[in-house]
Each structure stands twice: as structure tokens, then as C-alpha cells.
């Protein structure tokens, strides 16, 4: 039997759990905090594979694995179950570092998004923090409070919880992202909470975690404030969203955002979003639409492609709307930085070849469609006619494997 014990957030490990163990595995601080049974071997956890191999050598003996908090929550239980089978495990969870950190600051966390940056790409955690008002980040080497703070803007507050459960060393500190970026936090950080303090309490939830996925998308035009019908129509938006594939952890650009309808819809689907718009009244309109739908959209006032140079992080997907003479340059600039896909909407046939060339020359596989739809429109006498909408060309480019950007860039 392999007994997995969650420790390190205040609750001591009971001696009877260790009794009879032939092997005890855990981090150095966990092992130093317990009295090992006489004759028991001990392994200090470092790289996981050698520890799993050592455990395999004790197939007929009792093994105890000491882990932090709840070992079934982004913890060692997954690796043990995959290697030895869940039926061999006796898991005794402690309180997770996430639950402990939120308890320390007196906030519920059923509406928090939890993301691990331990041994993973930090950009996913950064984008989750940008998109959601309440997130918890499990940190690791090279992905701690300093790196997280350096990537985030000033509209978030970080709660850095270190050495949770250690009465002499525990610290819970509230800092700005800039303050976090300027410090060396050492190795004792347990978890970092990222909060939009104005929305940190959150609403009563039925389903834990991120906000409920929207029941509908490709919303009608009247769901957004817009000028003179200058808005991506819902039929076009539906296909654009399908090709963009926005999801939690993604960063999406909406370039030439207009009313911001695509930006808002991507944010509703969980992505972090930057909207670039050259018109000052359009900037305010995008912000109003994002607020009306309860999502975060960072709005940049400027003209593409020049404004794109100021965006530090490469996007996963880009939507390009509108399009004048500068469209090929805009599409090319977006394609050079997009990690996965670029979608372009155009009303003018003359722009299609240049936009397509910009995508293919950047290593994208390109496809497209002309969308023409006719909507039901009532007429007097309880009859209905078809009202045609303006045709729109939608191109999309998908980055081919040979030209894909590395996931850890």
C-alpha cells in the first residue's frame, strides 16, 4: 500500500500513519518534520522519475509519500496513480495551499480559477490572471511572483503566500505587480493569488471555478453599442470565433476592433484579450461593451500595424477587422507573431489576394469563404421577406507545424 499524506499547511503527520513504513518519500522539509520508523529508508524528492522507480522496488511493502497540502490537487497523486494504479493508493489530503491562502485573506475561492505554472509555460497563468478577476497561481522555478508581476499590468493585486503552515516563517503579503517584479522571493512561495480587488468577493456560484461558459455566443448586434451598424455581424462572428478558438489561457488580439464585439465574445469564452482601435470614440465604445458584458478587455488606442509593436506578448490568435490600404501590412504583422491562427474579415474583394499572400508568406495554411446571408424580415400583412446582409470575405490562416512557435517562448 502507498499512503499519500498531505502535510505542510499546519496539520502534523500522525505517527500511526508512518508506523510500519519501509520507505518514506517526501520533500526535505516534510521529512525533517517527522520521526521515521526504525529501519525505514527515506528518499528526498527531487526529480520525480527516480522516486517512482524507487517506490516500485517496494511493491510488497508499505510506502508513505509526504506531499504539500492536498496531493490530489495538482500534486503527486496523478503520477502515482498512473504508475501504480489508484487502487494501491490511500490518499489522506491536507488543506491545499490555495484554500489556505484564501482563508488567510478572508475570501471565498469557489469562484477562483486555479492554474499551475510549476514546470509549465508561465504565459498560460499570465493570461488566466488577465482574463479573470480572481486567480490562484501555483508557482515554480522561473515562474514565481517576480515573473508573474513583470508580465501583468497595474490593474491587479498580488497576494504572495510563503511557507504556509510554518508558524515561524509563514508570510502573506499584498503587493502590486511592479513590487512583485522588483523582489527576489526565494523558494518558500506556496501560491500567488491574483485579484481584481473591485470584484474579488464575487457572486454566489453554483459551479466552482471560472465563470460559467456562456450559453450563447455570436450575439445579436443589438447586444453591443456600435456606430452606424459598423459591427461584425453575428453570422460572420460565429465563424470567426470557430476559427479563432478562444479558450482560457489564450491571448487574443482584436485589431481594428470597432465596437469590440469579437473582443468581448473572446473574453466571454475565457481568453485574455487586447483590442486595438484607432478611433477615440471606438476605444470608449469597446470599454463600455466589455463592462456591459462583465469581461476584461485591454484596449489600446492606436493604428495598426504601428500600435502592434507596443504589445509585448505574442497572441495565440488574432482577428483583423475592416481593412484599408494598410490591410496587407496589418495582416503580415499579425501573422508574424500569432502562435496559432489569424482570421481576417473584409468587405472588399480587392483586398483578398493581398491578405491571403500575407498569411501564406508567414507560413500559414490559408482558407476562406464568402459569407452571404439573408435574414427573415417581417412585412405588413403577416408575411416575411428575406433581407440580404452585405457579403463579407472571411479568411483564416492556421500556422503549420513546421512554422509553429515554441510553446515556451
TrEMBL record:
GO biological process: cobalamin biosynthetic process; methylation
Pathways involved: Cofactor biosynthesis; adenosylcobalamin biosynthesis
Domain Methyltransferase: 252-320
Keywords: Cobalamin biosynthesis, Methyltransferase, S-adenosyl-L-methionine, Transferase
GO molecular function: protein methyltransferase activity
Tetrapyrrole methylase domain ranges (all copies): 1-179
Protein name: Precorrin-6y C5,15-methyltransferase subunit CbiE
Species whose genome carries this gene: Streptomyces alanosinicus
Amino acid at each position: 500500500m502507498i499512503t499519500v499524506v498531505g502535510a505542510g499547511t499546519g496539520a502534523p503527520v500522525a505517527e500511526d500513519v508512518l508506523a510500519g513504513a519501509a520507505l518514506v518519500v517526501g520533500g526535505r522539509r516534510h521529512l525533517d518534520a517527522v520521526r521515521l520508523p526504525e529501519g525505514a529508508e527515506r528518499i528526498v524528492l527531487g526529480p520525480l522519475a527516480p522516486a517512482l522507480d524507487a517506490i516500485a522496488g517496494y511493491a510488497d511493502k508499505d510506502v508513505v509519500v509526504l506531499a504539500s497540502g492536498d496531493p490530489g490537487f495538482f500534486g503527486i497523486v496523478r503520477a502515482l496513480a498512473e504508475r501504480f494504479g489508484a487502487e494501491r493508493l490511500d490518499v489522506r489530503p491536507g488543506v491545499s495551499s490555495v484554500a489556505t491562502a484564501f482563508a488567510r485573506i478572508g475570501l471565498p475561492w469557489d469562484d477562483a480559477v486555479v492554474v499551475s505554472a510549476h514546470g509549465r509555460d508561465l504565459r498560460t497563468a499570465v493570461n488566466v490572471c488577465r482574463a479573470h478577476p480572481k486567480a490562484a497561481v501555483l508557482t515554480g522555478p522561473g515562474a514565481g511572483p517576480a515573473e508573474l508581476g513583470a508580465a501583468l499590468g497595474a490593474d491587479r493585486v498580488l497576494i504572495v503566500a510563503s511557507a504556509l503552515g510554518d508558524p515561524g516563517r509563514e508570510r502573506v503579503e499584498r503587493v502590486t505587480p511592479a513590487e512583485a517584479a522588483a523582489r527576489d522571493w526565494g523558494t518558500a512561495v506556496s501560491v500567488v493569488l491574483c485579484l481584481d480587488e473591485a470584484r474579488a468577493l464575487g457572486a454566489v456560484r453554483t459551479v466552482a471555478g471560472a465563470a460559467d461558459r456562456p450559453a450563447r455566443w455570436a450575439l445579436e448586434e443589438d447586444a453591443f453599442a456600435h456606430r452606424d451598424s459598423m459591427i461584425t455581424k453575428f453570422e460572420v462572428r460565429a465563424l470567426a470565433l470557430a476559427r479563432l478558438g478562444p479558450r482560457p489561457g489564450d491571448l487574443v488580439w482584436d485589431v481594428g476592433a470597432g465596437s469590440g464585439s469579437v473582443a468581448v465574445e473572446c473574453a466571454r469564452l475565457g481568453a485574455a484579450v487586447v483590442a486595438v482601435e484607432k478611433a477615440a470614440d471606438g476605444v470608449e465604445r469597446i470599454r463600455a461593451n466589455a463592462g456591459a458584458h462583465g469581461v476584461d478587455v485591454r484596449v489600446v488606442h492606436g493604428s495598426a500595424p504601428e500600435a502592434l509593436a507596443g504589445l509585448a506578448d505574442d497572441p495565440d490568435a488574432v482577428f483583423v477587422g475592416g481593412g484599408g490600404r494598410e490591410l496587407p501590412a496589418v495582416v503580415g504583422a499579425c501573422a508574424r507573431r500569432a502562435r496559432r491562427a489569424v482570421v481576417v474579415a473584409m468587405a472588399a474583394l480587392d483586398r483578398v489576394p493581398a491578405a491571403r499572400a500575407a498569411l501564406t508568406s508567414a507560413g500559414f495554411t490559408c482558407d476562406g469563404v464568402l459569407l452571404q446571408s439573408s435574414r427573415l424580415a417581417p412585412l405588413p400583412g403577416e408575411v416575411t421577406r428575406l433581407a440580404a446582409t452585405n457579403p463579407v470575405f472571411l479568411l483564416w490562416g492556421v500556422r503549420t507545424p513546421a512554422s509553429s512557435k515554441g510553446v515556451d517562448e
